[in-house]
Design a protein that fits this description.
Chain A: Its EC number is 1.2.4.1. The structure holds two protein chains of two kinds. Chain A is an alpha/beta fold. In chain A, 38% of the residues lie in helices and 14% in strands. Classes of the chains: A alpha/beta, B alpha/beta.
Chain lengths: 400, 438
């Protein structure tokens, strides 16, 4: 948490309690946000957990089917492999073990060992093999058991996959997807918990995507597999088991989301909160808490870290005038830093308060549960930061 | 200093003679007989004579032959277990090989000249002395076979068929280069000629080559295309201590990939002697450790290399899996043009200079009457003109325009991906640049 010092400014303006709900929704695809908006409009119904909301959503939208992120990814892989025989999956434990996190469950039985390939523990080797195969027109999906292990292959990801199209002046595009869980799981220690979004997103030539919900996962993975460029697809282990409603449109085999476009999960007018992957869930919860206190937060799910949807972020900041960026990665040179720079460059006059960055504590991830909880951003941190941005912060003594 | 190694019988299914190179020989007495690899299937020429040049031995015995070709045939019949029909080179093949060798050498010499005149810049790694390996292997490949190399890739690209003009322009950083000036000396790519790079990191090209071989197998077995292409990966002795090398040896054998791993063992990795860096200096031994044949060959002799290459390539085409070929070779210049090359023993350099592949092959051609002086001179002249022309072409070509800076980062024009209908999203008129509320 890169908290700036508390500001003791008095209220400069009272936030308008009436949130403007623009005609957002009749599509069940936005069922979730719709429900949240309605609750906000009603002046904050009883505090409910996400799961409760999901149940409520089910009651509201008739076409909503629930799907876990795991199933969404599995279905996306399945459909893309069925559609194009050049697509194959390669990684550790993807075949007989059904996937280290069961994402590739059932694929070996369906497509055979030539297309779902269990590799030895050779990240650099098989990442490079994927790139070489992509040079020759195949469409590999390389799974890293976690992106921490991908550091052993980072030369191949950045230097060969990322730079080949440029170095060869367009002769050898690399249509490859590197996917796997990114970020902190629970209690797995320092070497298994780093978020690599910032590292990969700083490299030209790579596309970096990070879904949150099941629909995001399905749409983005399909887009990634079809994409002619190398895509680093950052999933999150702790979100694999979460269920989200999926619309009928999302279940269509041709459903894919555009790359480079962020999604406004929830509209608001007082402060913009950007997040990606698991932090979107936290940001939404924080928005709920803030709504009770009269702050209407606009939550942006980045979806695409590279190319970053600067247009959406800036447009939102110009509307709300305040920004809080949330990420799970380390604070220095993180995604939040880039967003802050982008906003300062493009929407400086519109900012009413300094940009607040929430990130992982600037330490390697500790093991003890309580320390880990302190290191990873929590909902309270986002709420505090948003309040600071709105000059509504409470003095430190009161929160102790 | 470890003791000299005895000539070992290697574990390999192929019927190659496997000489080992004595370490002592290199450092204590570089003028001793360099190797015992039989030339062109004949073992009679090399006894323990103190001759630096193994060619002369053979040539003396062949002098009595009426025609060089038939002499080989005679030998072939007597040494039936030994030679393969590919040792026979026709006049045509001989001239082709000679031309390729001379092209490699002249081109690299011209590169040095251009570098010192300031027309070429950055890192330039020259291939002088190692031409036999490139010509020996690549001249046997088809257009669809792939070659993956390291930063010392000019000659590999040339042998594979990339025009000299394109390579020279690329080195000058002009837009007419094979990579439009965006790659440079170390990153020669050609989709048309299947040159898959040009990698600066040692060991980086090996998994790429393995991947290309993987795709060939995939196409053959799954996509049912008639694909019996092979991939040849070139890399050096320093790379053979790198993790990616071993990872790929393992996977290549595991999946029986059509790949040939060619080690250009020139004994030096910049200033690090191979013997100081490697616990087991015989690189060919690392092949059998993973289950593939490991072969050692005299890399200064283009015909020996060609012989081994033919066998390895045929193996790969038949689907029998990978081969590791260690070519004993030497680079006459420093590691790069910035390398003062002070660490190498001058006696060693002299020894290998005497084994210059081009001189030796020229001698072979002449003495076996496969070509005459005039024809070879004509080839040399032709190559000189070709190289001069390529320099002129590169000189006159334009530098890349400003717009080119931002091109080719992505294959996808605006980075929005592919839509459900299969075309780029940015080309869809209904796709707006506005906020996505999907």
């Amino acid at each position: 948490m890169s908290d700036s010092s508390f500001s003791y400014h008095s209220l400069r303006r009272r936030p308008n309690l009436r949130s403007s709900i623009t005609g957002q929704v009749s599509e069940s695809a936005r069922g979730m946000s719709r429900i949240l908006l309605q609750r906000v409009a009603r002046g904050g119904a009883a505090a409910s957990s996400f799961r409760h909301l999901q149940n409520v959503t089910r009651a509201y939208s008739s076409a909503a089917k629930e799907m876990t992120v795991r199933d969404a990814l599995n279905s996306a892989l399945d459909e893309e492999m069925a559609a194009d025989p050049r697509v194959f999956l390669m990684g550790e434990e993807v075949g007989e073990y059904q996937g280290a996190y069961k994402i590739s469950k059932g694929l070996l039985e369906k497509y055979g060992p030539e297309r779902v390939i269990d590799t030895p523990i050779t990240e650099a080797g098989f990442a490079g093999i994927g790139v070489g195969a992509a040079y020759k027109g195949l469409r590999p999906i390389v799974e890293f058991m976690t992106f921490n292990f991908a550091m052993q292959a980072i030369d191949q990801v950045i230097n060969s996959a990322g730079k080949s199209n440029y170095m060869s002046a367009g002769q050898l595009p690399v249509s490859i997807v590197f996917r796997g869980p990114n970020g902190a799981a629970a209690g797995v220690g320092a070497q298994h918990s780093q978020c690599y979004a910032a590292w990969y997103s700083s490299c030209p030539g790579l596309k970096v995507l990070s879904p949150y919900s099941s629909e995001d996962a399905r749409g983005l993975l399909k887009a990634a597999i079809r994409d002619p460029d190398p895509v680093v697809f950052l999933e999150h282990e702790l979100v694999y088991g979460d269920s989200f409603p999926v619309s009928a449109e999302a279940l269509d085999p041709n459903f894919c989301l555009p790359i480079g476009k962020a999604k406004i999960e929830q509209q608001g007018k007082d402060v913009t909160i950007t997040a990606f992957s698991r932090m979107v869930g936290y940001a939404l919860k924080a928005a709920e808490v803030l709504a009770k206190e009269g702050i209407s937060a606009e939550v942006i799910n980045l979806l695409s870290i590279r190319p970053l949807d600067r247009a959406t972020i800036n447009e939102s900041v110009r509307k709300t005038n305040r920004l809080v960026t949330v990420e799970e990665g380390f604070p220095q040179h993180g995604v939040g830093a880039e967003i802050c720079a982008s906003v300062v460059e493009e929407s400086f006059e519109y900012l009413d308060a300094p940009v607040e960055r929430i990130a992982n504590a600037d330490v390697p991830m500790p093991y003890a549960t309580n320390l880990e909880r302190m290191a990873v951003p929590q909902v309270e941190d986002i709420v505090r930061a948003a309040k600071r941005a709105c000059y509504r912060s409470v003095p430190m003594a009161a929160t102790a | 200093m470890s003791p000299a190694f005895a000539a070992a019988n290697m574990i390999q299914p192929l019927n190659f003679a496997a000489p080992t190179r004595s370490k002592e020989r290199l450092f204590s007495d570089p003028l001793k007989s360099p190797n015992t690899t039989p030339f062109a299937g004949s073992t009679h020429n090399l006894r323990s004579h103190d001759r630096p040049n193994s060619w002369s031995q053979h040539n003396r015995s062949a002098a009595a032959a009426v025609v060089g070709v038939s002499d080989l045939v005679k030998e072939k019949k007597t040494k039936s277990a030994y030679s393969s029909s590919n040792l026979l080179i026709t006049k045509q093949e001989g001239l082709e090989l000679y031309e390729d060798l001379v092209l490699g050498r002249s081109f690299e010499d011209m590169c040095a000249q251009m570098y010192y005149r300031g027309k070429m810049f950055g890192f330039v790694h020259l291939y002088n002395g190692q031409e036999a390996v490139s010509s020996g292997f690549i001249k046997l490949l088809r257009k669809d076979d792939c070659v993956v190399s390291t930063y010392r890739d000019h000659v590999h690209a040339l042998s594979k068929g990339v025009p000299a003009r394109a390579v020279m322009s690329e080195l000058f950083g002009k837009t007419t280069g094979c990579c439009r000036g965006q790659g440079g000396s170390m990153h020669m790519f050609s989709k048309e000629h299947n040159v898959l790079g040009g990698f600066a990191f040692i060991g980086e090209g090996i998994p790429i080559a393995t991947g290309a071989a993987f795709s060939m197998k995939y196409k053959r077995e799954l996509l049912n295309e008639n694909c019996d292409d092979v991939t040849v990966a070139f890399f050096g002795d320093g790379t053979c201590n790198n993790g990616q090398f071993f990872e790929c040896l393992n996977m290549a054998v595991l999946w029986k990939l059509p790949i040939i791993f060619v080690v250009e063992n020139n004994l030096w990795a910049i200033g690090m002697s191979h013997l100081r860096a490697t616990s087991v200096p015989e690189i060919w031994k690392k092949g059998p450790a993973f289950g593939m044949p490991g072969v050692h060959v005299d890399g200064m002799d283009v015909l020996k290399v060609r012989n081994v290459a033919m066998e390895a390539i045929t193996r790969a085409r038949r689907g029998e899996g990978p081969t590791l070929v260690e070519c004993e070779t030497y680079r006459f210049r420093g590691h790069s043009l910035a390398d003062p090359d002070e660490l190498r023993d001058p006696a060693e350099k002299t020894h290998y200079a005497a084994r210059d592949p081009i001189k030796a092959f020229k001698k072979y051609l002449l003495e076996n009457s496969l070509a005459d002086e005039a024809e070879l001179k004509a080839i040399e002249k032709k190559i000189d003109e070709l190289v001069e022309d390529s320099v002129e072409f590169a000189d006159q070509s334009c530098l890349p325009t400003r717009e080119q800076l931002l091109q080719n980062v992505f294959s996808d024009p605006k980075g929005f991906g592919i839509g459900p209908d299969g075309s780029y999203r940015c080309e869809d008129p209904k796709f707006t640049e506005g906020t996505a509320e999907v």
